[in-house]
Design brief:
The complex is a heterodimer. By secondary structure, chain A is an all-beta fold. Chain A has strands at 4-7, 10-14, 19-25, 31-37, 43-48, 52-56, 59-64, 69-74, 83-93, 96-101, 105-110. The chains are: A mainly beta, B mainly beta. At the A-B interface, strand 4, strand 5, strand 9 and strand 10 of A face strand 5, strand 9 and strand 10 of B.
Chain lengths: 111, 115
């Protein structure tokens, strides 16, 4: 099956710093989503971005499908940004479609 | 519009007990999914359904059964719980067509502990 690798596995920032999270995937995909899992375990959709660039406030994401990677940018980080960031990719095949998750990047933003 | 809801939010079972987790969505989505998340890991697909009355196995289906008798509900059953099934369970749904056909929407999760 498709492999999804995220880096770095852990990241510690001071409030106000910027960061870039990376997601590499091993095959072509139909969809890519970025999620934030907050400290209470809730999964929050950040971006649906199979290709191109999107921005939402301090967050932006870029997916280069031909090179099989996606980047999540967090600017001016806040303590509320802490949590785990997951990248998930979907491939549609004859047997069905499945969303495959990476193992996540644990982000800690200190005040 | 409540989105995707899961019942219960927490549960503690003893080894060998059975239970059913309920997932409900009010977005008229065709596809529904059950995932499990173990500590320090991403989500893994247990079973999924592409429509009412249909189910299929995912990546880690052993020890679980599912049913989709109504379009809005997707049930996950554990017939004989084992400690290895201690996990957080997430349900998700997505539409077949539309502007964002492949975007999955997730429920809040059910934290299950098997002792």
């Amino acid at each position: 099956g498709i492999q999804v690798e995220q880096s770095p596995p852990d990241l510690i920032l001071q409030e106000g710093a910027n960061s870039t999270l990376r997601c590499n995937f091993s095959d072509s995909v139909n969809n890519l989503q970025w999620f934030h899992q907050n400290p209470w375990g809730q999964l929050i959709n950040l971006f649906y971005i199979p290709s191109g660039t999107k921005q939402n406030g301090r967050l932006s994401a870029t997916t280069v499908a031909t090179e099989r990677y996606s980047l999540l940018y967090i600017s001016s980080s806040q303590t509320t940004d802490s949590g785990v960031y997951f990248c998930a990719v979907l491939r549609v095949e004859t047997s069905g479609s499945r969303l495959t998750f990476g193992e996540g990047t644990q982000l800690t933003v200190n005040p | 519009n409540a989105g995707v809801t899961q019942t219960p939010k927490f549960r503690v079972l003893k080894t060998g007990q059975s239970m059913t987790l309920l997932c409900a969505q009010d977005m008229n989505h065709e596809y529904m999914y059950w995932y499990r998340q173990d500590p320090g890991m991403g989500l893994r697909l247990i079973h999924y359904s592409v429509g009412e009355g249909t189910t299929a196995k995912g990546e880690v289906p052993d020890g679980y059964n599912v049913s989709r008798l109504k379009k809005q509900n997707f049930l996950l059953g554990l017939e004989s719980a084992a400690p290895s099934q201690t996990s957080v369970y997430f349900c998700a749904s997505r539409p077949v067509t539309g502007q964002l056909p492949y975007e999955q929407y997730f429920g809040p999760g059910t934290r299950l502990t098997v002792t």
